[in-house]
Amino acid sequence: MWSRVRRLFTIKTKFEAYLVIYGLGLGAIERGVHYLQTYPGIGGWLLFAACPVAVFMAGGRVLDSLDHYRGED
Q1: How far apart are CA 31 and CA 12, in angstroms?
Q2: Residue among 18, 19, 51 at smallest CA distance from 33
Q3: Alpha-carbon torsion 14, 12, 50, 28, what sign?
Q4: What is the pTM of this model?
Q5: Which long-range contacts (CB under 8 A, 24 or more apart) does 24-32 make?
Q6: CA end-to-end span of the chain, whole Å?
Q7: Angle separating helix axes 14-38 and 42-70, nearest 10 degrees
Q8: 28-62 pLDDT, tens per residue?
Q9: Over 60: is that where the pLDDT of 73 sits?
């Protein structure tokens, strides 16, 4: 039974990976806007810039692990 539940949360295709990355990106930009409102000035802009960079790193990792999971190099 647990294997059936686990399959629901497994990213199997690149389309699913791109949907997850898109969701992460939307959340990161929302967090960045919050940082800009909370910390005006250069500090807020630096925190804003860090949010999408984290999504780029996570997105690359998701796509690489998907290729590795499927056996491609």
Answers
A1: 28
A2: 51
A3: positive
A4: 0.78
A5: 24/55, 24/58, 24/59, 25/52, 25/55, 25/59, 28/52, 28/54, 28/55
A6: 32
A7: 170
A8: 999 999 999 999 999 999 999 999 999 999 999 99
A9: no
